[in-house]
Amino acid sequence: MAEPDDQAPSAPGSSPPQGQSPAFWREGRAALRLVFQSPLVLPIACVLTFVASLQFLLEGPGLNSLDILSARQTRLWHMLVAFEPTLWLASLLSVFGDFKRNGAVWPGPGRERLAVVFYAVFLFTMALLPTIVPLLARPSFLPANVDALTEVPHLQAKMFVLNCLGSVVSVMLACGMLSVHIQLVGRPLRNPSSAEETATESLEREVLRYQQLRAQLKRCLGFAGTIISVSILTVSAFNNVLTQAAPPQPDVLPSMAAMSFGIYFTGFLAIVYLPASKTLSEVGEALAAQLVRRSPGARATWKQWSEEQQAVRTYLGLEGSALQELQQGLALLSPFVASLSALILGAAR
């Protein structure tokens, strides 16, 4: 006679051990989807890009450049070069995230897109001029053993690829700022899109679009200024590497040349940003005039009307704080500040 426990049926709610593995993988896939749908994906992608850039640069012991206790100039230069693609990725993820969430902040009609393309060609040429002119004037300004001095195989080919990618990303960010100007000039204020939409609903939609365009302008300015500043510091660090490794070698980027680069690209950003900022302020003033009553009503005092006007202007970003103005000013002047840093480091060398 069989014992009571022999071949006892399993409990209805229990599952065999073999069924635990699929459940585990399902939970794992769900966890990965949660990670990639959250803001956590940005730091993860940036870290992976940084490590991959080091590997691309050095083709072998790339992680050795993370030895930050080393006093060698090449370590700092390697890390700066690897940090540039990380910035490019972060800026592209931010820009395309805006495009995915708010498609209305990008040019819609064909004439606006064509205008952005014309500006892109012009800006790409202007961004490459400081690189092309020195190459034409001094085609062989690097030593023959530059690969050994910098510990980077095929240095010139890799630098050409990275410079082209950096120029493309910078031009894309500049076009992001220009698209704000083009949209506001082409479509300053929209009329109701349908008969069912009231004037109030149309105005609310315009206010939302205005705030999205303002956020896009600030974000593109911040990323573009940071990318250009890091590029100037990277070239200055490269100059220090060659000077330390081969003292008779003339400077690749002398201190005054770094200052010239900073002034040039500060003007480059100013030409792109300031007209867009001026147009944005004008459209904001027009929106504020529509949102605020021209004069106080029968039951409103002048003080209440003034407070309402102040609140609307603050809500639209027309009354920025001193900290916000300082942040925008630093973002615009960041290439010049980076060139000053390169000048100070070159003088202290």
From TrEMBL:
Residue segments, region Disordered: 1-21
Compositional bias (Low complexity): 7-21
This protein's UniProt keywords: Membrane, Transmembrane, Transmembrane helix
Membrane-crossing segments per the record: 34-56, 76-96, 116-137, 157-180, 220-241, 253-274
Membrane keyword on record: yes
Record flagged with keyword Transmembrane helix: yes
Record protein name field: Uncharacterized protein
